[in-house]
Design a protein that fits this description.
Distance between the termini: 31 Å
Number of strands: 9
Number of helices: 6
Strand order of the largest sheet: 3-2-1-4-5-9-8
Shape: globular
CATH class: Alpha Beta
Order of helices and strands: HHEHEHEEHEEEHEE
CATH superfamily: Vaccinia Virus protein VP39
CATH topology: Rossmann fold
Structural class: alpha/beta
Number of domains: 1
Length: about 200
């Protein structure tokens, strides 16, 4: 599997989507997930947050407005530009090179970004995430899933393929719990003919 080709296609796709996604409203269920995670952060007095695959920065801006010191990373330079326009400390960086940030964070937020990582690489990427998480740090991972597949997908908007990895609940649990303590794992229908998997975790 050619990871550089996967990253190239993702970069091109999301560069082309930056303006659209910047002006789009976030779905209410995603806002609810974000709010639940924020409540965890408040209860535990967390101060610093890293967002993985930040897109146009709506979530990073929310956490920043709530008083957290936020860093955002995204593969797409156009998405990073949108983040920076919002005053977010944002970097064009993939999940394989998080050590380049030279920082650790109290919490990490990832909404629908890690589903672009090939299954063979996910353990390595999760270890990279663990390495930039402070002791007792919190990690949220939200992904579409429910079935075990791995493939490129082309939609009606663009002919640029995007790579997706989906997991059954049991298989995703197995991968995650090798590295993190799972606080909660929920799988639910979000109306797209595929389930969403919401996982709250803690650094061991």
């Amino acid at each position: 599997m050619d990871i550089e080709a996967i990253k190239f296609n993702l970069r091109e796709y999301y560069n082309s989507e930056a303006e659209y996604r910047n002006s789009s409203d976030k779905e209410e269920w995603k806002k609810l997930e974000r709010g639940i995670f924020y409540n965890y952060l408040v209860q535990e007095g967390k101060k610093t947050l890293l967002e993985l695959g930040a897109g146009a920065g709506q979530d990073s801006k929310f956490f920043m407005d709530c008083g957290l010191k936020v860093t955002a990373v995204d593969l797409s330079r156009e998405m990073v530009k949108k983040c920076r326009e919002k005053g977010i400390d944002a970097y064009e960086l993939d999940f394989y090179n998080l050590s380049a940030l030279n920082k650790k964070y109290d919490c990490i937020w990832s909404m629908n970004s890690l589903l672009h990582i090939p299954k063979s690489d996910l353990p390595k990427v999760l270890k990279n995430i663990d390495n930039v998480l402070n002791d007792d740090g919190l990690f949220y991972m939200g992904v579409y899933g429910g079935e075990d597949t791995e493939n490129d997908w082309i939609n009606d908007v663009s002919q640029i393929p995007r790579f997706f990895s989906y997991y059954s609940e049991n298989k995703l649990r197995a991968v995650l719990q090798d590295i993190f303590e799972i606080i909660s794992f929920e799988q639910f229908d979000v109306g797209r003919n595929i389930d969403f998997q919401s996982v709250f975790m803690r650094k061991r």
